[in-house]
Design goal:
- The protein is mostly helical.
- The chain has one domain.
- The chain is built from 4 helices and no strands.
- The protein is rod-shaped, with a radius of gyration of 29 Å.
């Protein structure tokens, strides 16, 4: 991975911590709710046959509203889980780095133990793994 891609990855990771999944809404639902109000004023039992009734419209509005609410609740759960994962990844990354540095402190950065712990010898000319 070159320096540019490493910087880009770090940038994307840093902003993704704060990004949440967008909640869903429905313009069709809003429009239907407005139309129902007007149609109820005409006749609360409006029915033109072939499922073209005010009652059917109210049922579908309620079904869509419930589906959207369930969808948005699921997104909130996913967002919370993502936040937890991000925090744990950060904590584990810090722990990994601290452990490697502790091995380096005890055995040296040119030791076999340092390499076993995931470090790369400076004499190899590479950065730590």
């Amino acid at each position: 991975m070159n320096l540019g891609s490493a910087v880009l990855k770090k940038f994307i990771t840093s902003i993704s911590i704060y990004m949440t999944l967008p909640k869903r809404s429905s313009r069709i639902l809003e429009k239907a709710q407005k139309r129902v109000s007007g149609m109820q004023a005409i006749d609360p039992n409006l029915d033109f046959g072939n499922s073209n009734s005010l009652q059917n419209m109210l049922q579908q509005i309620e079904e869509l509203r419930n589906k959207i609410n369930n969808h948005n609740t699921a997104l909130a759960v996913v967002d919370a889980s993502k936040t937890d994962i991000d925090k744990l990844e950060k904590s584990l990354g810090v722990l990994c780095e601290n452990m490697l540095m502790s091995v380096a402190g005890k055995y040296g950065k040119e030791s076999a133990e340092y390499v076993q712990a995931g470090g790369v010898l400076k004499s190899d000319g590479f950065a730590n793994a």
